[in-house]
Amino acid sequence: MPFPNLFFLPRSLAVAIVSVCVSFISLFGPLQATRAQTAGEVLFVLDGSNSMWGQIDGIAKIAIAKDVMSDLITDWDAKVPVGMMIYGHRRKGDCQDIEVVAMPGQVDRPLLIDKVKSISPRGKTPISLSLTMASAQLLLKNLGKYPKPRSSLVLVSDGLETCGADPCETARNLDLANPGLDVHVIGFDVTNEESLALQCIADNSGGKFFRANNASELQAALKETVKLAKAEPKPAPPPAPPATASKTSEPEPADPEPSLFLYAKLCESCDRLAANKVRWSVKERDGGSLYEGLGILYPSDPVLAPGRYPVTARYESSVLVRDTELIIGDDGQQVGAVNLMGGTATLFAYATDDKSIAADPILYQFFPLKDGKAAAKALTEAASSNSLTWLPAGRFKVVASHGTIKESAEIDILPGEKTRHDFDMRVGYIQPSSVLSAGTKPLGGFADYAVFKTEQDARTKQTLDSLLFLPGSQKAKKPLKPGQYVIKAFVNYNRGGPSMSRIFPLEIKANETATPQLDMQAGLLSHKVGSASGQRIINIDYMRASDDKRVHYFNQGTTKTLALPQDRYYLRVMISGGKTFNTDAFDIKVGQATNLDVAIP
Predict the structure, then answer these.
(1) How open is the CA angle 437-440-444, to the nearest 5 degrees?
(2) What is the helix (H) or strand (E) element at residue 85, kind and residue range?
(3) How many CB atoms lie within 10 A of CB 416?
(4) Peptide bond into 147 cis (omega under 30)
């Protein structure tokens, strides 16, 4: 029976399957641990998240990764089973956007290369879930096989987890659930802090960490991980003789006790956070690194003598980071707890009238506010609906994106407190049309539309400043938030010439499409103007006879068709030299065409 694909199962069921696999191993693992494993198989886990559009020396990281991976697969040793998984490449804001391209098996170079070259970074960085699902897939694939293939995961990532999980802890659990599974990690163009967090994944799984800052280093790191995966496994040690009761038998040494705990808190009056929830970078006074890791130190770790140390403390893998001072007392223990001064944001967005259903897909971005102005660049931290997002205290502009619809809000993050905000992402749609007058043929591409919030905006603002612009030639409906608007319709029979406009009220309802047919209540004027003297005509003004007010002008020729509201008009024609001539008055009537053939001296 083929193994199930966990990526098409509910997450809770997938976790249950993993648990069953772990139980199986717990029963048969000791027996198999004494048996040799076969040569290695490799499963690549590639980062396709939006941050891969970042550049190195003017070249996008994803472009570099595609070239290097394609070369690696082209030269791949056919004897080594290889597979591929990609995350964050199909949907924005989706923490379950993980695709299994192929499980380790016979090398299908065209498939893998085509898939690599098609990656278009879009979304988040679900490292923990990717590793968990990859491990589970390998467990099920190899369940009952003897000898069991030695599996290696090779994770290539350019940053931290952005889905609220702790990959470091995940790697530790994977090592227990799938003994012998190595996770080698390549940090591609990462910061020092990101490097430490990614290295923890490798350290906790028995793998190796590599840092690559350019194409050649990425290529070298990938080749090194493949060597590690292909290396012959070390022979298993002979089984230990059965223990016998003896007065001389020595008890097994106990695990070492921690020598120091480092603690942080979210606010001055908050309780201390668990020591294994905060990652520390402790430095010497001269800036040298003294300790990097979680807040649990053992005798084998550096001893922190009494004194003050510059530290950087990060809550899990979030952007809640504080550069501050750590104080070690005379007793060798921490004095107090470092105040991270942070809180949480819980966001939710709905796109239907059922406000309990989360909009999907959804992307949230956080822009720190300073002096009322939002930062130009969003934090790397992302959030999913109803999840806790840890942030430093302060004010943030949060932008929620659901397809082409964006909503923003300003929220305050207070130390030790939870902030919640809901976004209404419901939309309606608009698909307007217009006619010159009731009962006439729709104007189609001769009409364009601009949507404004108020009639005053429609009368005073430029078209470019409208909420939405719809070319008449575009037939697709456009999304718009529910509410009351005005729509300004423009009729123009010759691009670049004068246009007629009218303003109409507009109501958009959620999950409905408004299809107003706008009656312009206009007639048509077609004219041809000539000069008997042969003088060049440089401008034509369209004058309303009742008040001698110019309603349009035309300076691109002598022949023109245009729409005009019902009224009495005349033309003012200017020739070279600046002399003007007025034509006889004529009437424009709704739904009718008026033709003029004008000759001036």
Answers:
(1) 95
(2) strand 82-87
(3) 18
(4) yes
Q: Give dist(CA 397, CA 344) in Å, integer.
A: 14
Distance of CA 138 to the CA centre of its chain: 28
Q: Which of 254, 252, 253, 272 is nearest to 262 (CA)?
A: 272
Q: CA–CA separation, 394 vs 413, rounded Å?
A: 5
Closest CA to 539 of 557, 566, 514: 557
Angle, helix 109-117 to helix 61-74, in steps of 10 degrees: 170
> 565 forms bridges with which residues in the sheet?
522
Helix and strand element counts for the chain (H, E): 8, 40
Bin 494: left if φ > 0, else alpha if -120 < ψ < 50, else beta. beta
- Tell me the CA distances in angstroms from 463 to 157, 489, 490, 497, 517, one per residue in order: 44, 11, 10, 16, 20
Token pair recorded at residue 592? 């009718």
CB neighbours of residue 364 within 10 Å: 23
On whether the CB atoms of residues 207 and 66 are closer than 8 A, the answer is: no
Give me the percent of the chain exceeding a pLDDT of 90.
45
Record the tokens describing residue 272, joined without a space: 């201390």
Angstrom CA distances, 340 to 275, 312, 335, 499, stand at 13, 10, 15, 60
- Alpha-carbon span 402 to 362, nearest angstrom: 5
Indicate the burial class of 150 (C-beta count within 10 angstroms; 0-12, 13-18, 19 or more): buried
Angle, helix 11-32 to helix 167-177, in steps of 10 degrees = 50
3-state secondary structure of 347: strand
Q: Judge contact between 233 and 219, C-beta under 8 A.
A: no
b/e burial code for range 261-290 (CB count within 10 A of at least 16 → b): ebbbbbbeebebbebbbbbbbbbeeeeeeb
* Reported confidence tier of residue 30, pLDDT bands at 50, 70, 90: very low
DSSP bridge partners of 449: 470, 489
Place of tokens 């550049």: 55
Integer angstrom CA distances of residue 188 from 217, 409, 420: 9, 33, 34
Q: Which letter, b or e, does each residue of 211-222 get, where b requires 16 or more Cβ atoms within 10 Å of its Cβ?
A: bbeebebbbebb
333: left (phi over 0), alpha (psi -120 to 50) or beta: beta
pTM, two decimal places: 0.49
pLDDT tens for residues 96-122? 999 999 888 888 888 898 889 889 888
Neighbours of 441 (CB within 10 A): 7
Encode pLDDT of 472-515 as tens digits: 888 788 888 899 999 999 998 876 556 789 999 999 998 899 99
Please state the separation of Cα 156 from the chain's center in Å: 18
| Distance between CA atoms of residues 180 and 139, nearest Å | 11
DSSP state for residue 591 in the 8-state scheme? T
Compute the distance between CA of residue 94 and CA of residue 64 in angstroms, rounded to an integer.
24
Q: What is the pLDDT of residues 324-350, one digit of tens each?
A: 999 999 999 999 999 999 999 999 999
